[in-house]
Amino acid sequence: MRTLNVVALIGFLAWCGGASAGDKTGFVNKTFTDKKGNKVPYVVYVPKDYDGKKAYPVILSLHGLGDKNPIPWGLGTYIKARGDLDFLCVFPHSEKPWDPGRPGEKIAMGSLDAVLADYRADRNRVYLTGFSMGGTGTWSLGAKYADRWAALVPVASESTPEWASKVKDIPIWAFEGAKDLEAGVQKGREAVEFVRKVGGNPKYKEFPNVGHVPDHAYHNDDLYAWLRKQSKNPAGGNWQLKQPFGDSTLHISTRDGKLEVREKGNGNAKSRIASCEDGLLVIHWEVSEDLRGYWVLSLNPEHTKGSGKTVFTRFNVEGFEPGKLQVIEGRKVRVVEGVTIERMAPK
């Protein structure tokens, strides 16, 4: 973007992730490689009609303490009984708690990131759920990675006021068994009250005569109907854009049902031709005709680095040189290496 007369634009039209139609469906054993080079196993459920063309919503499911089954009861048994479910479901396994700073955190988030990279996933509809230890992990990881979730579904859980304050704006449906003597139903009630006290509006369902079991929550068609309606727009708010030639702020808002993007600080460009699909913000900048083009940025909660050599594979232009003016589909665009975008902390 630089200044309007030397605006640098990145031309990409769509996200290039997604598994092929020939990939396995059903419960598939997978592994990802952690930062230490270890192979970490997990299971992903792939819907029967998955062909890599349509983006599917994703459920990350955290099991309870002592659950040895790689496909845990609750969500796993519901899928088996139903025969199919139109969600990609991620089942990590950990002997230790899922909470931030504990070993389970890296296993859970690593498994999720692997599925998002390998499959055609709707990054605006990623849901976090868990039972017992996993329910508490839903609150804690929900809080740490709040920008990533379209909804949270804690079952037989406990939380803290700190976690509640960070997830209050996320749609939440919490479940408890009234006769849960193991985890204590009062802790689940308290978790919901924490959210309400800070201005959140969580849904809550308590099953009478039910103990410490997950099936009443997960064998519930209403839950999945509700989840299908939950979607986030990761674009809203202020984002800091770091570029080799200077930083600026993108202010993204909705006007008349459409995204509006204004850049301040290093170019002051603006656009009302924008959309958000699969977690990518697609902007058509209103700039001089000779540099008009598309710019796509992935808005994940951490940060995204755009690289001309990787993002442009859809156009078969791996040989494009960063900084060099090129032509894509009749538009002149400039590929820029090292572009990073990250959400700014609220003031």
Write a compact overview of the structure shown.
The two termini are 25 Å apart.
Detailed description of the structure:
The protein is α+β, with helices and mostly antiparallel strands and 347 residues long. It has two domains: 4-15 and 234-343, no CATH class; 34-228, Rossmann fold (3-Layer(aba) Sandwich). 21% of the residues lie in helices and 31% in strands. It has helices at 75-82, 103-118, 133-144, 161-167, 185-197, 215-218, 221-228, 308-311, and strands at residues 26-33, 39-46, 56-62, 88-92, 121-131, 151-155, 173-177, 203-207, 237-242, 248-255, 258-264, 270-271, 273-277, 280-284, 294-298, 304-306, 325-328, 331-334, 339-343. Strands 1-2-4-3-5-6 form a six-stranded mixed beta sheet. Strands 12-11-10-9-19-16 form a six-stranded antiparallel beta sheet. A three-stranded antiparallel beta sheet has the order 13-14-15, with no helix packed on it. Helix 3 crosses helix 4 and helix 4 crosses helix 5. The longest helix is centred in the first third of the chain and has 16 residues, at 103-118. It is globular. Residues 1-22 and 300-322 have low confidence and may be disordered.
Name the overall outline.
globular
- The level of helicity is 10-25%
CATH class of the largest domain: Alpha Beta
Low-confidence stretches: 1-22, 300-322
The fold-level CATH name of the largest domain is: Rossmann fold
- Strand order within the widest beta sheet: 1-2-4-3-5-6
Beta-strand content bin:
25-35%
What is the topology?
Layout: E1 26-33, E2 39-46, E3 56-62, H1 75-82, E4 88-92, H2 103-118, E5 121-131, H3 133-144, E6 151-155, H4 161-167, E7 173-177, H5 185-197, E8 203-207, H6 215-218, H7 221-228, E9 237-242, E10 248-255, E11 258-264, E12 270-271, E13 273-277, E14 280-284, E15 294-298, E16 304-306, H8 308-311, E17 325-328, E18 331-334, E19 339-343
Parallel strand pairs: 3-4, 3-5, 5-6, 7-8
Antiparallel strand pairs: 1-2, 2-4, 9-10, 9-19, 10-11, 11-12, 13-14, 14-15, 16-19, 17-18
